[in-house]
Amino acid sequence: MTDLTTGIARAREILSRVKHPVVITGAGMSAECGLPTFRDAKTNNWDTLARQLATAEGFRADPQRVWEWYAGRWQEARRAVPHPGYTALAAWEQRANVRIITQNVDGLHRRSGSSQVVELHGSLNTFFCFEQQHPVEFEGLPDLVPQCPYCESLVRPGVVWFGEMIPEEAQQGAAEAMLQFDALLVVGTSLYVSTPQPYIRFAERRGVPIIEVNPDLALEQPTVGLSGPAGVVLPQILC
Ligand code: OAD
Questions:
Q1: Spacing, Cα 29 to ligand 1 middle (Å)
Q2: Which of 125, 172, 185, 198 has the most crowded Cβ, counting Cβ within 10 A?
Q3: Region 97-118: what's the mean pLDDT?
Q4: Residues whose CB is less than 8 angstroms from the CB of residue 117 and which lie 6 or more positions away in sequence, other chains included
Q5: d(Cα 133, Cα 164) in Å, to the nearest integer?
Q6: 89-109 burial, b if ≥16 CB within 10 A, otherwise e?
Q7: For ligand 1, atom 35, which residue shows the shortest CA distance?
């Protein structure tokens, strides 16, 4: 029996009893759907690129470049097909009050049928204007960075950039999810960005079991660490 097999059995046993799980996901959750993560061998220049593509300064300097990059991600996300791990999380709702707190902006959790999803970093599917935050909607995305119909400022994606606050509503949603929880599942995040850290620390302090799924485990001492891909491991621990 391999470590992973033992871990899967243990995680399954824990999760079969929980009623109010919280699931934290990151870019690795969508890797098997063909959406690249930010920090792996192929994208290890993300921290340089992030300044140009994921900050207000980057947008001011070259709005068209930023627009095109996010338009490309929007298209990739629309084309992506959720893997069985997504379906397993959605189906879990039939047995438990599952709350998902995601750093991902691709919308795949909701598309897979999960109903309680907090998007900490916003969404590729929303847009607002740079100057006055007027919400703007599109059928299909224009090639050129568009102007706000109300104030003519440029339109930006509704994602959280570096240096920006997590939206109040998302913070509140996450805090509410953590009011009552009996297990924490951490999937596909490097924890390089500190957004999920307080939730993990809180779970540790409360003595709530923490199960991590990631081929390259990031937590020092999860209750169970499952070193494998989300699309393969989640269906096995949530059945
Ligand atoms: P990262 O790109 O930092 O980390 C991705 C994690 O997914 C790594 O730990 C991988 O080992 C893991 N991973 C890869 N393939 C996987 C698979 N098939 N199954 C499970 N895990 C897998 O992504 P995040 O931690 O989500 O923010 O990054 C957090 C934030 O940093 C993002 O939301 C983004 C980025 O800068 C902004 O753009 C504001």
A1: 8
A2: 185
A3: 98
A4: 100, 102, 109, 110
A5: 13
A6: bbbbeeebbbbbbbbbbbbbb
A7: 38
Across 4-15, average pLDDT: 98
* CA-proximal residue: ligand 1, atom 39 (nearest): 161
Pocket probe for ligand 1: among 192, 195, 200, 217, the residue whose CB has the most ligand atoms within 8 Å is 192
Q: Which of 119, 121, 153 is nearest to 134 (CA)?
A: 153
CA 148 to ligand 1 center in whole angstroms? 32
pTM above 0.70, yes or no: yes
**Best mutation site among 39, 89, 120 for ligand 1 pocket (most ligand atoms within 8 Å of CB):** 39
Report d(CA 122, CA 156) in Å as an integer: 12
Give the active site residues: 121
- Atom of ligand 1 at shortest distance to CA of 216? 11
How many Å lie between the centroid of ligand 1 and the Cα of residue 116?
21
- Which residue CA neighbors atom 4 of ligand 1 most closely? 190
Name the percent of the chain lying above pLDDT 90: 91
Dist CA 36 CA 169 (whole Å): 27
Summarised one tens digit per residue, pLDDT across range 31-82 is: 999 999 998 756 667 878 899 999 999 999 999 999 999 999 999 999 999 9
Beta pairing, strands 122-129 & 155-159 = antiparallel
